[in-house]
Amino acid sequence: MSPALIEELGRIVGPRWVRHRRAELKTYAMDGLPTRESYPGVVVIPASSSEVREVVRLLHLAGAPFVARGAGTGLSGGAVADPETVLIALTRMNRILHVDPVRRRAVVQPGVVNARLSEAVAPLGLHYVPDPSSQAACTVGGNVAENAGGPHCLKYGVTTNHIVQLEVVLPDGSTVELGSPHGEPWGPDLVGLFVGSEGMFGIVTAITVRLEPVPASVRTLLADFPTVRAASEAVSSVIATGIVPAAMEMMDRACVAAVEASIYAAGYPTDAAAVLLVELDGQPDAVEAESETVRAILCERGARSVRSASSAADRARLWQGRKKAFGAMGRIAPDLAVQDAVVPRSALPDIMDRIAEIRDRHGLSISNVFHAGDGNLHPNISFDRGDPDLVHRVHVACHEIMAVCVAAGGSITGEHGVGSDKLDYMPWIFSPETLAAMRAVRRVFDPAERANPGKVVPVHACREWRAARGAQ
Amino acid sequence: MTARPTAPDYSSLDPCVHCGFCLPACPTYLATGDESDSPRGRIVLMRALERGEIGADDAALLQHLDACLGCLGCEPVCPSGVGYGRGIQTAREQLFARRGPSPLAAAVLGVFRRDRVWRPAFTVARWLRATGLPRVLAGGGRAGFGMGMLAASAPATARGGAPGRRLARPSAAAAAPTVALFRGCVMDTLFGHVHDATRRTLEANGYRVVEVEGQVCCGALHEHAGDRAAAESLARSNVEALAGSADWIVVNSAGCGALLKAYGHLLGTEAATELAGRVRDVSELLADRGPRPGGELPLEVAYDAPCHLQHAQRVHAAPLAVLGAVPGLRLRLLPSSDKCCGSAGIYSVLRPDMARAVLDLKIQSFAQADPRPDVVATGNPGCLMQIGAGLRAAGLAIRVVHPVELLDESYRRAKIYG
Ligand SMILES: Cc1cc2nc3c(=O)[nH]c(=O)nc-3n(C[C@H](O)[C@H](O)[C@H](O)COP(=O)(O)OP(=O)(O)OC[C@H]3O[C@@H](n4cnc5c(N)ncnc54)[C@H](O)[C@@H]3O)c2cc1C
Ligand code: SF4
Ligand code: SF4
User: Which of A108, A152, A271, B274 has CB 3.0 to 4.6 Å from A112, enough for a Cys bridge?
Assistant: First the structure.
């Protein structure tokens, strides 16, 4: 990175907030996906919207590419930059700017940590609904960019359903307001377009979110199944009743074992082949009736036992275990390939069998933890990158799992985004024409493709896409 | 000795999957938002150091590893059970072996190595404190902050003066369990009044407190800095002095207590392990007995957990039980009460800017608390002085005391001491 540019950046944010020494760059070389490492050219940590604007303006004039970064918990290599690229970390912009309890809105800076927001508005009886498992660490800005989901998005929708307005610095350094605080967009829904754009359209510097009242009553059930298939079938049976649980999450034996060995041990049965965590919320009477129905179905589908959280603390413990599950997998092996795919719910039982078959054939250790209610799978492969043969097998297995999901009518990502990790899979599910349309939209915001370059939308020649598709 | 130096062991970091859950638990990351100042970033640096990808003399690596408080706030939140503390200790020893201490660190650590150096130094400080000047000069600038620290070490009431070294009153029945008071250095000079309160409250709860000669500084500051040889030598003196002295060794400084409890690990001898097993924080001994309730103190009290008590010793409930024994005392935990104050041994002397940035987050939460606390209670001398100075610099009229001081005051009100 040119010393002149580094100096210019320092003039904007203060030299203290520009990181360019090798050791420092190394700490930014990965996000939550430790298998992709790339040193950024320089890291700049602005303190305000206007500093972001000036930085992006400078980069526009210099023709330099850039990547935004929140907490770096992303699982698709999205917040990682190459040596020609400037990494803009939004972590210092962590203030909640305004809370309107009457209209149930909050305006936050992008670096606010998801869980902090809900904590801050809890005294008002409100919360911010999207609750990715990483919520203790990830930022609202990162959630917007990834359109993050979470256990409770089954009933209440993912991030995009909870964002009404965005302040965005476009790649040329100009600032635009998208949407309105009323949440009724006039004209094209640009907020909808921006949410999930993975940093390709610019940097969001202020976010107006919807807040929701904390539900009057909540019931959390923990069911324990002798086979993964029985648990998967139970999921479909519950949904078939027309009841929409607030959340429905599955963990298999390997995952339960890792959680139970951690400080987040939740008291899950370690001898179960799979456990289901089902939550119902709403008015007390309805919750009571629905949980009885759900309990009956779970038992009918072969649950060995179904227990209900006995207290708020017990409920919190059951959820902490689920939410810290990825982290706990470091106990199995030092490296983890986190997969993210969506399949039609009805295909769940068969897909789970196929994943087990792939696991056994390659001799791998796979633990499953996922949002079962919406068919969003996370088969996680534990491995040690010191073993090249194993790394190869992991790579092949990831491909095979993804192919199986796509063949069942599924999609290549449920919530972790495409980033750089899923780039190769894009032609599996989108036609060259659709990919070209995506690229055209990208160029509307960013003609030179300097924002998060090389990610999300593959830029291969159309012929290569076709060849890749043909191979399917 | 001709033993070949073994390669530094960083295996406790192996389980890290880079998930980021530790970021919001780290005071330096909260202060800067910089991944290089986060546990996850430091783990990346330590692994690079281990593999030789980054040299032990790399200025950026040194800056960010040195900026770690060693507060261990990152350990209890890690789902993978990463042993961050062991990792950073290994790194500190590796780096110390190579570069030695900085001149400032060497000077400070040197003072604490010898009783005949630190005792007169702190005695002069106590005289200065007695003049009342530090209270007047306390402020936000660097010198003013230092004065604020000294002022904050003063007893809250005029009663305490010179340390009551031999105040021993005829004690509880001979059958009562005996407790040897670990005197330490800073505690024994600037915080003599806390030693007095420790003794009185323990005796009121049925312990017999005994004095043991020949103790030295615990060595925690040296260990923290990576100067293992100095820490070991001090530890050996203490093990010798305290061996067979009493049923329990009581410590009222969380930092000292954490190391005394780890003497077995540090020295690897049977005597050290045996001694370490008998070490208790004063709050633990009091909580074992209830402690007995005292007289009413109608105060808003915010408890602030010293890192070396909550993370290193994993003592959480005992100090709350001590404060709970004071009728009328309204106890609260503020959002920042489990975060490091930035004192961290001699860290606040070596890296005053980061220490202040870390402290400011805590002071803000006191300023914003509603109702505002009258008193902050915390069981470690560094925290008492650091938080006290920060409150003074911010112009907040909040007292900072050791929890046993409140219990002591409460017993006095109830006329328990007669
Ligand atoms: C243990 C664990 C559990 C997880 N569970 C879930 C889950 O349940 N659901 C889920 O959806 N995800 C989950 N994730 C993935 C991840 O936490 C989410 O994608 C999250 O939204 C990322 O936020 P972040 O702040 O870490 O963003 P980063 O990782 O820093 O960035 C992610 C992307 O957003 C872009 N970006 C960041 N900030 C901005 C900004 N201000 N403006 C524009 N672009 C920006 C980056 O360029 C990058 O492309 C999990 C991750 C981990 C490690
Ligand atoms: S929480 Fe643990 S596993 Fe996750 S990044 Fe921090 S140290 Fe690593
Ligand atoms: S020990 Fe404290 S300062 Fe150091 S990385 Fe852990 S939380 Fe941060």
Answer: A108
Residue-level pLDDT at B104 = 81
CB B369 within 8 A of CB B334: yes
| pLDDT for the residue numbered B169 | 52
How buried is A413 (Cβ within 10 angstroms: 0-12 exposed, 13-18 middle, 19+ buried)?
buried
Residue B151: CB partners within 8 Å, gap ≥ 6? B129, B134, B135, B138, B388, B389, B392
Residue A464 pLDDT > 60:
no
Given a cut of 70, whether residue B1 has pLDDT beyond it is no
- For the stretch A271-293, pLDDT in tens is 999 999 999 999 999 999 999 99
Q: Two tokens at A82?
A: 């190459």
Chain B residues with CB-CB distance to A34 below 8 A: 17-18
Q: Does domain A96-213 have CATH number 3.30.465.10?
A: yes
H/E element holding B399? strand B399-401
Flag if B79 and A136 touch (Cβ within 8 Å).
no
Which residue of A lies nearest to B21 if distances are taken between CA atoms?
Answer: A137
pLDDT surpassing 70 at residue A437: yes
Pairwise pLDDT comparison (B158 vs A21), residue with the higher score: A21
For chain A, what is the mean pLDDT? 92
Q: What is the pLDDT of residues A65-104, one digit of tens each?
A: 999 999 999 999 999 999 999 999 999 999 999 999 999 9
Helices assigned H by DSSP within A363-449: 388-407, 426-429, 432-445
Output the 3-class SS for B164-215. Answer: CCCCCCCCCCCCCCEEEECCCCHHHHCCHHHHHHHHHHHHHCCCEEECCCCC
A96-213 matches A215-331 in fold: no
CATH number for the domain whose boundaries are A215-331: 3.30.70.2190
C-alpha separations of B236 from B183, B263, B271, B313 in Å: 16, 9, 10, 21
Residue A465 has pLDDT above 60, yes or no: no
Q: Encoding tokens for residue B151?
A: 């002022």
Distance CA B73, CA B67 (A): 14
CATH topology of domain A333-429: Alpha-Beta Plaits (3.30.70)
The CA distance from B129 to B148, in Å, is 10
Distances in whole angstroms, Cα of residue B176 to Cα of each of A379, A390, B207? 60, 63, 5
Q: What pLDDT was estimated at residue A184?
A: 73
The atom number, within ligand 2, closest to the CA of B21 reads 1
User: b/e string for B246-281 if b means 16 or more Cβ within 10 A?
Assistant: bebbbbbbbbbbbbbbbbbebbeeebbeebbebbbb
Report whether A207 contacts A160 (CB < 8 A): no
What length does chain B have?
418
CB-defined contacts A:B, below 8 A: 124
Model ipTM value: 0.92
Domain extent listing, chain A: 3-89, 96-213, 215-331, 333-429, 431-471
Sign of CA dihedral A336, A340, A345, A347: negative
Q: Which residues pair with B300 in a beta bridge?
A: B330
Is the CB of B19 inside a 6 Å radius of any atom of ligand 2? yes
Q: With CB atoms and an 8 Å threshold, state whether B17 touches A29.
A: no
CA angle, B66 then B68 then B73, to 5°: 165
Confidence of residue B295 (pLDDT cuts 50, 70, 90): very high
Which of A28, A136, A330 is nearest residue B80 as measured by Cβ atoms?
Answer: A330
Chain A residues whose beta carbon lies within 8 Å of the beta carbon of residue B368: none
* Higher per-residue confidence, A71 vs A332: A71
Q: Tell me if chain A has a CB within 8 Å of the CB of B60.
A: yes
Q: Residue A195 has which token pair?
A: 């949410």
CATH 3.30.43.10 for the A3-89 domain, yes or no: yes
Number of H helices, E strands in chain A: 17, 20
A26 interfaces chain B, CB cutoff of 8 Å: yes
Nearest CA among B64, B86, B65 for reference residue B75 = B86
